[in-house]
Design a protein that fits this description.
The structure holds two protein chains of two kinds. Chain A is α+β, with helices and mostly antiparallel strands. Helices cover 45% and strands 19% of the residues of chain A. Chain B has 16 helices and twelve strands. Chain B has helices at residues 59-66, 82-87, 113-126, 131-149, 152-164, 178-183, 186-196, 212-223, 273-285, 291-297, 330-347, 351-367, 372-385, 389-392, 394-399, 403-413, and strands spanning 7-13, 16-21, 26-32, 38-45, 92-97, 102-109, 202-208, 247-254, 259-265, 302-309, 317-324, 419-427. The chains are: A alpha+beta, B alpha+beta.
Chain lengths: 431, 432
Amino acid sequence: MSGSHSEDDLLSTRVSEERVGDWQVLAAPMDVDSVVSIRGSFCTYPDFDAGEAVLQDLAVALLDKGTRKRDRFKLAEVLDESGAQVTIVSDALRVRFSVRTLVSALPRVIDVLGEELREPLFDPAEFEKARAYVAAALQREMESTAAQSTSALTRLLYRRGHPNYVLSCGEALELLQGYRLEDVASFHQRRFAPTDATVVFCGDLKGVAVTDLVAETLTGWPQAPRTDVPSYGGILTVPASDHVVVPDKSNTDVRLGHALELLRQDPDYVALYAGNYVLGGNFSARLMSEIRDRMGLTYGIWSSLSNVNRLHGGHWVVGVTLSNENVQAGIDATRREMERFVTEGITADELAEKQNTITGSFKVGLATTGGLALSLLYNAERGFGVDYLDRFPSLVEALRVDEVNDVIRTHLNPAALSLAVAGPDSAPGVQ
Amino acid sequence: MQVPDAFERITESGGITEYRLRANDLQVLLMPLAGAPVVTLMVTYRVGSRNEWAGLTGATHFLEHLMFKGTERYNKRLNNSVFNVLQRVGAQVNATTWFDRTNYYELLPREHLPLAVEVEADRMRGALIDPEDMESERTVILNELDRGENEPIRNLYHAVWSVAYLAHPYHHPTIGWRSDVETVTPSGLRHFYDTYYWPRNATVSVVGDIDPESTLSLLEAEFGKIDAGPSEIPEVTTREPEQRGERRIVVRQVGQLGALMIGFKGPHGRHPDVDALDVLSVILGSGKTSRLYRRLTDNGATTYINASASRLRDPGLFYVFAMLAPGHTHNEVEAAIHDVLDEIVREGVTEEEVVRAKNQLRAQEAFERDGPYAIASQLNEAIAAGDWKLYTTFEDRLQSVTGEDVRRVAQTYCTADVRTVGYYVPTDTNSG
C-alpha cells in the first residue's frame, strides 16, 4: 500500500466530523447491511491516589440497574427486543461505551445509552449486588497469571496515583468494601460529564440523522465538562522485581518493561512503534521467531508500547507465557533478545518488511464497522484529525532504518527493565 | 459470469455460490462482498479431534501447528515461512482446530489474494512435517496446554464433555491428552496428513472484494494440479451409547469463585431441533430479560450465566454455564437452573419470549456479516457441521420455529437422564 489515493479511498472524505454540544461526533457510512457500530468515550479524571478507580468501576456497574425514568427491566427490554448490545466500561481516565445494533433500533438503543450515562438511579437495592459483581471480577483476576503479572509490572513502574498504576486486587477489594452508595452517587455527580467526549458511528447510516440523534440522546447532562486537565507524573526509574504467587498453575506469566517518557503525539512515536513491531509485533517478529519458533519455549510472546496517550506516557513491555519448568530459561532468552534489539538495532530489510505489514494490516483493520469505529475513536482521543489516519501509512512508509535505530536507542534501555512474574510458588527464584 | 470449464456450478444460496473443481472434487464457495477492499480466504479440512483415538489425541491440532513450519517452497530456512510471507503484506493469518474441522485462513488486502491461494494450495500436500520442527513445536503445544490448564473454567468445560461422552471422540479435548502430545510421532502426524489433507476432503471459501470468474481461474491454477486423494475418506463410526442416567463431575483447583456447567445430550447440527434449541438458549440465558438472568444474576446469585446449543457434525451438548457470585453455592444455582427448565417443560414459553429470541438471533446473524472474516468464520462452522447451507438458510428456518417447538425440545433433551453436571469448586490450597 503506497503512493497516492483516490478521493474515495480517503477516510477524511468519507467520515463526517461535527460538534454537537460538548461531543465530537464522527460518522462513517459503510457498505454493510443494517448494522451500526458505535464507539465512544469521555474523560472522568478520577483521583487515582484516593482510590477512585474502584469507585468508577462501581459507578459503571450500576449504570444499567435503572435510571430515574425506567427500571432495569424496561431498559433491558429495549435492547433485548432488538438484539442490540450496549457495553459501558471503566478504563482509567475514561468511561468507554460500545454499541452494536440494527439500524432500525438505533434511536431507541442510543436513547437507553444516554439515559444510563446521564441519570442512573443508584437504587439502594442494587448497590450490594453491584459491589459483589465488582468484587467477583477482582477475585477472578486473582486467579489469572496474565492479569497478575500485568498489574504487578505497573506497580513497579509508576507511583500510586498515576493512571497506569493498577491497584493490587487485595487493595482494590478493601477499598471496595468501604464505599457507600452515597460515595458512588457523588462520584457520578462530580466526574460524569461529556469532558473530552467523542462518539463514532459506523455502518448502515442511510437515512440516519446522526447529529440530531446525538443532540436528542447524548446532550443535556447536569454536569458541565471539566476544562482543566490534571497532569500525571510519577514514574519510577529504578529497576525492580516482584513475584506474585498464584497457586496451582501449570503456566507462569512474565512481564519485563520500563516506563517511557514519550507521549503519543511526540515525533518519535511512529518510529518507535515500527521498531518495536520488529521486536514483537506479530508472529513473524523476532521474539516469536526466536523464542517460540526456534527454541520452542513459549506459545506466546509479544512486545508493545503500552498505555501511551496524549496526556501521559506509558511503558515498553514484553510479555511471555512459560511452562513452569521453563521460566528462567524463557526470561534469559527474552532479556537477550531485548538487549540485542537495542544494542544492535534493526536492519533495513526488517524495517521494510514491517512497514508493509503495518500499512497492509492497517487497511485490513478498517474493514469492519467495529474496527473502523475503534480506530476513529482512538485517533480522536489522541487529538488527531481524521486525516491523520489517511497519512499514517505514509508516515510509516517514510521511516528510515537509521532514524528508527536512533529512536530505539534514545527511548529503550534493557538495563532499566523491571520484572513481574506471576505463577505458582513452586517456580524458581527468577530474575 | 462465465464459469471456467474446470468447474461445475453446483448451487447458490444467500449470496454464496458453490462450485466443484472437476479435477479433484475440491468444494469451492465464493461470496463477493462490496465494501472494503479486503478478502478472506479460508480452507476448511473436514478433520478434527473427532477423527482421533487414544494415543493420537491432539494429532490434528499438532498437525495444524506443523502446517506453518514449512513446505519445500515456503519455509524458514529460505526466509519465506508462511507467516513471514503473508504477514509481510498485512495479512491476518492463523488457523484453528476443533472437534469437526481444521481451518486455515488469511484476511488480507484483495490484491494479495493470489499469494494466499498459492500458499494454501502449496501446503495442502506439500507440508514437510520435519521431525526437528516437530520437537520444537511439541514444547510450544505443551505450553499451550499448560496455559489452558491454568484456567479452571476451561478445565470444567473439558471435564463435562469427557464425562458426557464415554465412547465418542468428543470425549477428549481437541488439544489432546498431555501424554499423547508428549509421545506422538512424525509418522502419527503424517498418517493424519495423508489420510485427510486432500482436495476431496476440503472446502475453499473466498469472501470479500472479488471477481468470481478470475478467482475461480486462480483457484484452478493452484489447486487444480493436486490429486483428488483417496476415494474413501474414513468416517467416524463410533456412536456414543445412549446415556441412561445423570453423571456428575467435580473439578477442584485453587481459586476464588466457583462455576457450574450442565450439559444435555442434543442432536447433530443438521437436525431441525437445533434451531428450536437456539431459541431456547436465548430465552434461557441471553440478555437481561432472559429467564436465568432474572432468576439468578439479577438476584445476585451468579455473575454470569448463559445457555448454548452445540451445532456439531455428530450429536453435541446443549448446555448451561454459570459463574457463581460470592456467597452462593453450586447446589443453589443448580437447583434454580433445574427449576427454570422444569417450568418451561411444564408451561412452555410465551409468544413474546419467542419473538424476542428470534429478534436477538436475527440481529446476531446480521452482526456476524460485518466483514468477510466474520462471514467466512460462520460458514466454516456450517461446513464442519456437514452442510454449508446451514449458514445461509438459518433465518428462514428460524422463522418457522414456534413456542411449542421450544417447549418440545426442552421436554425431549433437557432431561435428568441425559444430563452431565460439572462443578468447579475452588480450593484454598493444592491439597484441596
